[in-house]
């Protein structure tokens, strides 16, 4: 395999690894722009993953599995929405409870599916375009859900900044009292945003179990739900930055796998570093557990550096984020 082919494979792997975060991050972005902080993304992803996998096993159709994953995420989000919007429970505590519930429920439902093989979603090459050198395999030879993620990014960006509905959504997130005063249903708008976020989290989980690693394993999201939450904040609630952050995580994940596969070549390369830096790098590279933490650590560090201006984050954060709305107040 020559260098250009390796680079293309790494970039394709980056897109695949980042796609679950694109779905989950953009879904959470819409919810937060409406003023809702849902920390249950990890739980919704896990329930979506196991539901999508189970439906695929039962029907043999991974596309039905993907739809079921979206539905499962929506149902989970409705639990959160009902508690926070009607019973006015604390959003942080409710979101954490939703994650704990999702972890336990997915483990219970998925117990009988561990080790069950499936035929996941396969790449769909777009005729002619997929034959273009470099660009073809990079952009036009993916599974259907990756194309959906590209479209989702475009639609969310257009919706937020180019439509009246997006303006209303942002208005609710900035001042729910003002939006209510001029006649908008804050609870209805927030519920719709919550359900959309839940559906995208479920699809993110479904992508993991149907495409990325077509199998079911307990806790297979491996903290990606929390990374998606961090992406939204560090991206200062901008869709383009969420996309970049998702692919940053995916790129570091794929690079760490290539480093593990390179073996002796990487070990020899470490000899150019002075002691004790070279020795510590070797320890990290030779430990699969330590290497597996690098995508999470590096993503958070890089995003924190990019968004180190705390004032900018405060200015871009929805003013009503996490605040309950009291219709009668």
What would you say this structure looks like, in words?
The protein has one domain (3-123, 143-316): Orthogonal Bundle (ABC transporter involved in vitamin B12 uptake, BtuC). It has a two-stranded antiparallel sheet with strand order 1-2. 73% of the residues lie in helices and 1% in strands. The longest helix has 31 residues, at 3-33. The mean pLDDT is 88. By secondary structure, the chain is mainly alpha-helical.
Total helical elements: 15
Q: What fraction of the residues are assigned to beta strands by DSSP?
A: under 5%
Order of helices and strands: HHHHEHEHHHHHHHHHH
What fold name stands as the CATH topology? ABC transporter involved in vitamin B12 uptake, BtuC
Strand arrangement across the biggest beta sheet: 1-2
End-to-end gap: 66 Å
Tally of discrete structural domains: 1
Counting DSSP E segments of at least 2 residues, the number of strands comes to 2
Low-confidence stretches: none
Gyration radius (Cα, Å) is 21 Å
CATH architecture annotation: Orthogonal Bundle
The CATH class assignment is Mainly Alpha
């Amino acid at each position: 395999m020559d260098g250009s082919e390796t680079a293309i494979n790494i970039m394709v792997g980056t897109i695949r690894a980042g796609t679950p975060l694109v779905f989950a991050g953009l879904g959470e972005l819409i919810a937060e722009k409406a003023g809702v902080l849902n920390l249950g993304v990890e739980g919704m992803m896990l329930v979506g993953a196991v539901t999508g996998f189970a439906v695929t096993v039962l029907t043999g159709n991974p596309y039905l599995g993907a739809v079921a994953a979206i539905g499962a995420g929506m149902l989970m989000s409705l639990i959160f929405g009902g508690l926070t919007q009607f019973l006015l429970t604390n959003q942080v505590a409710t979101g954490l409870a939703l994650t704990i519930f999702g972890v336990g429920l997915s483990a219970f439902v998925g117990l009988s599916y561990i080790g069950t093989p499936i035929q996941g979603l396969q790449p769909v090459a777009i005729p002619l375009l997929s034959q273009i050198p470099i660009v073809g395999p990079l952009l036009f030879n993916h599974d259907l859900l990756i194309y959906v993620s590209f479209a989702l990014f475009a639609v969310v960006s257009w919706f937020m900044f180019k439509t009246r509905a997006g303006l209303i959504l942002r208005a609710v997130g900035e001042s729910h009292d003002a939006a209510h005063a001029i006649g908008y249903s804050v609870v209805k708008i927030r519920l719709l945003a919550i359900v959309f976020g839940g559906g995208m989290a479920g699809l993110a989980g479904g992508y993991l179990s149907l495409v990325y690693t077509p199998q079911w394993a307990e806790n297979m999201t491996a903290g990606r739900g929390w990374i998606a939450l961090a992406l939204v904040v560090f991206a200062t609630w901008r869709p383009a930055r969420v996309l970049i952050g998702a692919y940053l995580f995916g790129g570091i994940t794929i690079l760490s796998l290539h480093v593990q596969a390179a073996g002796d070549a990487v070990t020899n390369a470490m000899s150019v570093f002075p002691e004790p830096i070279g020795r510590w790098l070797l320890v990290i590279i030779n430990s699969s557990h330590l290497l597996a933490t690098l995508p999470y650590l590096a993503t958070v560090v890089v995003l924190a550096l990019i968004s180190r201006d705390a004032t900018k984050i405060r200015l871009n954060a929805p003013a009503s984020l996490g605040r309950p709305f009291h219709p009668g107040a």
